[in-house]
Amino acid sequence: MKKRSGAAKPLRFHILDSEALSLVVHGDRGMIARIKVAALGEAELVTSPMALIEAYDGRVSEQRWNWVLSRIRVIAIGEDEARAARRLLADAGLHGHEHAIDAVLAVIARSLKGEVTILTSDVGDLEKLVPEHILVRHV
Fold it and tell me: Which domain of life is it from (predicted)?
């Protein structure tokens, strides 16, 4: 068996905000394609508990939610992450009432090692919270 030469390809992460999660739950083709890419091991889908709560839609069956959540890693946040999110908001001049979830997603993005893309409906504000090497894409 031949050894592969060169460095291993860095892991790719796609962070989903509540709008991206909602699109997955409602069967959006583009977002379902990302689920398939993740299933092939080419990327990992992650989100925050807060985005999960905000994306909740009572019209969607529990079975559908469970299917989606079985394919996404929900990254827990604690006091340290909350403090880091607060500092990001302060540095960017944003208010927690409107941007708390964005700040938590930014903290998660900063903690991941590899290629990170945040999929969001709020590109402008998230770009204020992450360094340039973290991509922010509109869904």
Answer: Bacteria
